[in-house]
Amino acid sequence: MKTVVTVFGATGQQGGSVVRALLEQPDKFQVRAVTRNPTSPKSLDLEAAGCQLVQAELAQTESLIPILQGADCCFLVTLPPVEMVLEEAVKDEYQYGMNVANACMAVGLPHLIFTTLPNCEEISGAPVPWSDSKAKITEYFKKKELPLTSITLPDFYENYLSVLKPKKVEDGVYNMVIPTGEQAYSLINITYLGEAVRHIITHRDEYLNKNLTLVTDRLTVGEIADIMNKHLAPFGKTVGNAKFTLDQTREKYKAIAGIETLVNWYKFILAGPADPQYEEYKDIELGRRLMPSAKSFDEWIEEHKEVLAAALC
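Structure tokens predicted for NmrA-like family domain-containing protein 1:
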């Protein structure tokens, strides 16, 4: 019999990766792709690819029970509602987690896989609501003794084409403005997260009631700038490292909504060894083993150099 997997966020980065990986083995897996709108183009594409579309709202526990009934595993990613003020949105996100927990207990779900983040406020003293909320959801799942595998994810390579891309100084000249100094931090090629999730599903007993930190590269911001500079040279673009401090970043970008939260995230990264998972963040071997198709950041930038060059305008 096929393993039935309910996948939340099936049209997003994380859930989409899981869907693709499971559909590569259609003889082994039946994918239930959760959507709020089963008639949307993205939903119909999933159906055409072989998914069973199921409609549900994380805000409504009663809608979650039917889509989890009879499933062998659920992959869950939670996001705060984007239309709300962040502080209020993360309260809703936490409620989503509780709703899923209640639905899982109601149906006796055998395995829940949840992508989580650290509790930055506990570690560095500076709150990062969109990270802290996921840590609190994880603790709630544990308190309810759900059959859980949690996956801690670092920064995505893919974000360096958008929100984390270098900032323009002048024509052809750009700077990285990430204020982490010489502290190396962890990265993941999120496109291939699904490979790890597929492995975890098929080796449930090995990973049950464990947290895995998946890392596919670990670099300083200066090393990131050097890699970009190397691959962007043919496009007439250079990338340096502004070497901003936390305070300089806060002051320079104070007009940007959410800058304080972003600065707090980098304060957490600088806290480094204060994080109980610090050694796990340094472990590239696990991520590369569970995600064999993942690239190093250097390889990934080489593959996406045209896209990055076009994004720098």
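The radius of gyration is 20 Å.
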